[in-house]
Design a protein that fits this description.
A: 328 residues; two-stranded antiparallel ribbon; globular; B: Rossmann fold; Rossmann fold; six-stranded parallel β-sheet; four-stranded parallel β-sheet
């Protein structure tokens, strides 16, 4: 039991299971495979972004500009598609990712070279990105009829039972798993978060590692930008408004420690899925819109309390053991 | 762009001055002052005003406005119109209060002043023309759904936030007229918070919770677009009609795909047309702007001035596959 409880992922899986059971009591159709696929697809964007955010948080930073980055990249690819309908969609996606990565790199450079606190940097760039969307678009929307069919169709094309947007998320999750467990850079993210001073002695450049974290997060945001505008078939200044908080919430629920150094790929994905289930269940279980906000807030708080307790327990157990040994 | 706008403004003013220089005619000169030049919505209103001028015969429309949508710039425009001694000013104001002194000066010189679209405080105008009223909008959103449900059916409303004042008033008005549409059952009201992702999920939730749902009414633009996409993705085009309030540019694609049969919003052409009619009636003394007065506005019908000097033009205009393309480039 204690082994199971030690793994935050297991608790999350159990919590999601419990949540699904509760929902199915009020709305049995929620558990139909078709609906679960739908929920996963709806959560795929959030899950990818949570992974990007996780890298940044691991290095003791935070990226508040991810949703604005997503919106700017989304608007740019939508405007490009509207202006040049011939450009193939993969080229647009690649363009969006390059743009997203450069916007993320901008955050990274400011944090790295100017040594500014990331919360201040990204608060600033968040506003700059949103403002740029307004400047670019003049406040105009890019609407469904201006986007070409291929642009809108890609994320919702079903292949092997899942929509392409879900497969993209699966691929991103896979890449992150490899990055975090096999690549030196992935291990550096943890090292920098656990102990920046020791990392320097181990030959890891803390600022550069943070720069890469922001850049990768930005690249993910760029990819998500395309998926977002294609999914909802509309681009305007406020798309994904307030979404940065959902991303951070998904990380925190998934057991990513805001203090840095702690967090796993499955955890962040499960955190996003947990939020996704809540978001998709609230409309069908027929609760008042006023209660909805309170419910999702309460759910997040409970999850965070769980995580916080978990982190603390670990420390105490070690101390107790040490004390016990000392006494003996 | 700004240079172009300035050129347009200058040309408009010069044109106006030339007419001033011309010998006095038995014409009513109505200045249609807009928030800013180069905006498709106001260009369309101008087209409507010209249509009214043709019908009325002895009317000349002076279409003008600043290049930047600010109150200061509009005051300059008003001052020059006073100098030109136009007969009437019909203005869509950038600020309800800042324009009052300038417009009062115009009224002191015997110029008829009305506001339309975006109003001026009561002391600065004879009357204000609203594109519609809450009652008319509430009725329209139900009618849009009912039009395509001759045998009745279930409808749901997808609104903005649960605390959005406009939407809540419209939904209340819609509930009041429901008894006039037998067979139409309003099953629920849900809130998408004007966020694309939440509205999309709420629309999906509606389709799951109410398998027999026939229409989703969204009196908000983000909501209607997201709901139309959700219905499209669920493969329910033809089963569920998405309707409500939106701009033609935003909905053109969804009307052509069949996700939306029709939707409504004010028609800028009618608005300019009506403003010209009212300004003409007041300037020529054919009507007096006082509470309870009725003024005929040609093909649009007639308006009745209410307590605070405001009047509502008509039901929001309905857009469908037959006319959405004509308007999608306008606004």
């Amino acid at each position: 039991m204690s082994i199971v409880l030690k793994h935050r992922e297991m608790i999350l899986v159990a919590a999601i299971g419990l949540l699904l059971a509760l929902i199915s009591m009020r709305f049995p159709a929620f558990l139909e495979p078709r609906n679960l696929v739908r929920v996963f697809d709806d959560t795929s964007i959030l899950a990818m972004l949570a992974l990007g955010q996780m890298l940044v948080i691991l290095t003791r930073c935070i990226d508040l500009s991810m949703a604005a980055n997503l919106a700017l990249c989304g608007m740019v690819v939508a405007m490009l598609n509207a202006a040049f309908p011939g450009v193939p969609v993969p080229a647009l996606i690649a363009g969006g990712m390059v743009l997203g990565a450069s916007l993320g790199a901008l955050n990274g450079v400011l944090v790295w070279k100017l040594n500014m606190p990331s919360i201040v940097v990204t608060l600033g760039t968040m506003t700059i990105f949103r403002g740029s969307i307004f400047l670019l678009s003049g406040g105009q929307w890019v609407n469904a009829h201006q986007m070409d069919d291929a642009f809108k169709a890609l994320p919702r094309t079903v292949a092997l039972g899942l929509p392409v947007s879900s497969w993209i998320a699966v691929a991103v999750i896979g890449l992150f798993l490899i990055l975090m467990s096999r690549a030196p850079l992935g291990r550096a993210f943890y090292a920098v978060g656990v102990n920046p001073t020791a990392s320097v002695y181990a030959g890891i450049n803390v600022g550069r590692t943070r720069f890469f974290a922001f850049t990768v997060a930005g690249m993910v945001a760029g990819l998500a930008g395309y998926l977002w505008v294609a999914r909802y078939a509309v681009a305007y200044v406020d798309i994904a408004g307030g979404f940065e908080l959902q991303i951070i919430a998904a990380c925190v629920i998934g057991g990513v420690s805001i203090a840095g150094g702690i967090g796993t790929v499955p955890g962040a994905v499960l955190g996003a899925l947990f939020l996704g289930v809540v978001n998709n269940a609230l409309p069908v279980i027929n609760v008042s819109p006023f209660a909805q906000m309170a419910i999702s807030g309460a759910v997040i708080t409970v999850a965070v309390i769980f995580n916080a307790r978990n982190e603390r327990k670990k420390g105490r157990i070690i101390l107790k053991r040490a004390q016990g040994e000392g006494a003996a | 762009m700004s240079l172009l706008k300035r050129l347009i403004a200058t040309t408009a003013l010069t044109a106006a001055m030339f007419t001033l220089a011309a010998p006095a005619q038995a014409q009513t000169r109505i200045a249609l002052v807009v928030k800013s030049l180069g905006n498709g919505f106001f260009e369309a209103a101008n087209a409507g005003a010209r249509e009214a001028a043709e019908e009325l015969g002895d009317v000349e429309i002076i279409y003008t406005g600043p290049t930047e949508p600010t109150a200061e710039a509009q005051i300059e425009v008003i001052n020059s119109l006073i100098a030109q001694q136009v007969d009437a000013i019909a203005i869509s104001a950038n600020d309800p209060d800042a324009l009052v002194p300038a417009l009062q000066r115009a009224m002191d010189r015997g110029i008829t002043v009305i506001s339309w679209d975006s109003g001026v405080a009561p002391e600065g105008r004879a009357m204000h023309l609203n594109p519609s009223s809450n009652e008319l909008i509430g009725n329209t959103i139900i009618r849009l759904a009912a039009d395509h449900l001759p045998d009745g059916g279930q409808v749901a409303i997808l609104s903005a936030t649960a605390t959005a004042t406009n939407q809540n008033i419209w939904i209340d008005e819609a509930r009041k007229v429901l008894p006039n549409y037998p067979g139409i059952e309003l099953v629920t009201v849900v809130y998408g918070d004007d966020l694309a992702d939440k509205s999309y999920r709420e629309a999906q939730g509606l389709m799951q919770t109410y398998p027999d749902l026939d229409a989703i009414i969204a009196p908000t633009t983000v909501g209607i677009v997201a709901a139309a996409q959700a219905v499209t993705d669920a493969g329910k085009i033809g089963e569920i009609n998405v309707t409500g309030l939106a701009l033609p540019s935003e909905m053109a694609g969804h009307v052509h795909s069949g996700a939306s049969q029709s939707f409504a919003i004010w028609n800028p052409i009618d608005l300019g047309y009506s403003a010209a009619y009212i300004a003409h009636a007041l300037a020529t003394g054919a009507a007096v702007a006082e509470p309870g007065a009725t003024i005929s506005i040609g093909r649009v019908g007639e308006i009745t001035i209410g307590e605070n000097g405001e009047a509502a033009m008509s039901d929001p205009f309905t857009y469908d596959a037959s006319n959405v393309d004509e308007f999608k480039s306008i606004f």
